[in-house]
Amino acid sequence: MAGILIKTYLRLSLRNPLRTALMVIGIALGVAGVIAIDISKSSIGKSFELSASSLTSRSSHQIMGSSFTVPQNLFTILRKQLGIKNSAPVIARHVKSDQMGDSIFTLLGIDPFSEQYFRTFETINSPGAGSLDLTSGAPAVLVSRSNARQYRLELNTRLFLRIKDKQIETRVAGFLDPDNQRGKSAADGIILTDIATAQEMLEMGDRISRIDLRLREDQVDRVKQILPSGVFLVETDKHNQVIRDMAASFETSLTAFSML
């Protein structure tokens, strides 16, 4: 019976080669579409976890503002008046570069002296330059080793960043993460610089994006009491959960689309 069906199918296929070719192409496109969507879903989850680990890392709380900025003097108050050493000012803004395709990167401005409590980027590799000084005031940035390889960026390469309608010239002063075979790095998608340089590039004056904190339960109320209007304290896990929910909704939409 099976042999008869196969012979019948082959006979019909040979009589209508164009229809057969279109059928095979249609099936192949359908399978390729489902596989591509599954890969996209996996990439979304992986990208979020890597971004979250590099941007929030070990913080338990964050001070954020309704206008997406907070006064920098809040960091001084936290350190000197409240004695909270586990705190770090952060500037984070999305930027693009024609030299790096259409990808969106996060320009991350940090205070190197405060980061020991939060993010720990792997070895900063600056060949021939010794230890890299991020506080030199020069428009110097660090990119991940894999991003540098992908976009052919070398040490001291001029890198032009686009922030809204403004283009800023920077210099690649070193690389984050040495060569490795572990796939995507937590530093991919990040352009790192010191916080003063980021403020100057973004024309933020004495404002920053947020303050990362590691608080004990008895410190939470004390911090809330010094916050001005329009500035609030959020738990990092709850903030990340909102983004996780958005990513999950997008994954659900992709799944529905793949079923079609």
Structural topology:
Blueprint: H1 2-15, H2 17-55, E1 61-65, E2 70-71, H3 73-80, E3 87-95, E4 105-110, E5 124-125, E6 140-144, H4 145-150, E7 158-163, E8 166-176, E9 190-194, H5 195-202, E10 207-208, E11 210-213, H6 217-225, E12 231-235, H7 236-259
Parallel strand pairs: 4-9, 6-8
Antiparallel strand pairs: 1-11, 1-12, 2-10, 3-4, 3-11, 5-8, 6-9, 7-8
**The biggest beta sheet, please?**
10 strands, mixed
Helix percent band = 40-55%
The percentage of residues in β strands lies in 15-25%
Q: Rg to the nearest angstrom?
A: 25 Å
Low-confidence stretches: 123-133, 179-183
**Helix/strand structural class:** alpha+beta
Q: Report the total helices.
A: 7
Number of β-strand runs: 12
Give the end-to-end Cα distance, rounded to a whole number of Å: 33 Å
The ordered string of helix (H) and strand (E) elements is HHEEHEEEEHEEEHEEHEH
Describe this structure in words.
- It contains seven helices and twelve strands.
- It is α+β, with helices and mostly antiparallel strands and 260 residues long.
- The strands form two sheets. Strands 1, 3, 4, 5, 6, 7, 8, 9, 11 and 12 form a ten-stranded mixed sheet that branches.
- Strand 7 (158-163) and strand 8 form a beta hairpin.
- Helix 2 (17-55) packs antiparallel against helix 7.
